[in-house]
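Section 5.1 Outputs to date
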Amino acid sequence: MKALHIITGLGIGGAEQQLRLLLRHLPVRCDVVTLTNPGAVAEGLRADGVRVRDLGMRSNRDLGAVPRLARLIRRGSYDLVHTHLYRACVYGRIAARLAGTTVVATEHSLGRAEIEGRPLTRGTRELYLRTERLGAATVAVSDTVAGRLRDWGVPASRIHTVPNGIDVAAFRFDSAQRCATRALLGLPGTAFVVGGVGRLVTGKRFDLLIRAVAALPGVWLVLAGDGPEAVPLRVLAARLGVADRVRFLGECGTAGPAPAVPAVLGAVDVFVSASREESFGLAVVEALAAGLPVVHAACPAVEDLPEGRVPGTTRIGSVPGTSDPTKELTAVLRHHVESGVRRLPPPPAVDRYDIRLSSRRLMDVYAQATDTATAIPTERAHP
C-alpha cells in the first residue's frame, strides 16, 4: 500500500508531531503534503526519510489548491489519502474524490465549542459535514471526539476511534538525565518543580500555572512550548515577581538548545495540564509514562477510561464555576509539595496508548476503507 498524508501545516504541534511518530511505525510507504508552513516537523520528517511537499496555499480560500492536490494524488498513484486537521480535511477530501482515491481523515482537535483552538461556527460545521461525506472513514483520537462527531450527525458506522500514541520507552525515567537536565536549565537540585508542555495559547491556561507557582514560595515552573501567549506569560511572571522561578524553554524536540520533552519531564516533579478543552491530552499521557503525578482539567485520555484506571492523577475544575481555578490549582500543588517528591510506576493504562498499538488499529481502518471502496466502485472524476 502507498499512502499520501495531507496536513494543514508542519510547525510544532500535537497533530504534527503525532503524524511524524506514526509514520515511523506504519508498515506502509507514505509521502506527506503540507498545505502551508513547512516548519520544524517537515524537517524532522525529511530526516526520517519521508518525502514532504509544500503545496504553498496562499490563504484559506485558495481554491486552486484542490486541482493541484488532485493532480498530485493521481500522479502519485496512491492507494489511499489520509488527511489531518480541518483545512487539510476539507481540501484533501474533495481532491481525493476528484482523483478517484479512497480517503480517510483523522479528527485531532474537535472540542465542544472549538476546533483547533478556533470558535466553532455554523458555517465551519456545515462545511466539515459536507466534505466528511466524501471520505470512507473518519478517525477520532478519543472516545470523547467520537461522541462529538456522532452528535454532529456523522454516522457511527463511519467513525473509528484510534487513540493518539506515544513511544512509551522514550519517556522512561532516568535519574542521571534528570540531574543533567536540571543543571542545563539552572534548576536547583532540591527544588520542587512544576512542569507544563504545549502551545502557549489562551486555551491551555498556562497563566494558572504561573499564578499558582507565584503563591508557592520556593516552587519553580518549567514551560515547554511556544506560541502567541509567550510574551504575555513572561510579562505576567515578571509582574507577579516570579520571573526568576519560571523557565520558558520554547519549542522542544527541535534542533534548538532546549532539551527534548522526555528530558524535561524527567526534570520536573509534578505535571499540570490546565487546558480548558482537549480532544485527547497527549502531554498528560507522556507525563504518566515518565512516572509523574499529574494534575489535569480536560483530558479525554484519562476521562474516557474507567474510574481508578489511572492512579496518580488529580482532576481540577470538574464542576465548572464552583471554584476559583487558580486557588484550586494552588491548593492541589501545595499538597504535592508537602507530600514530597515521588516518582510513580507508569499506570497500566499507558500501554493502551502505545504508538505501535495505534498504528495497528489504523491499519485495520485502512484495510476496511480500501475494501469498501473496492466493493463499491465509483466513477473517476477529473478536475
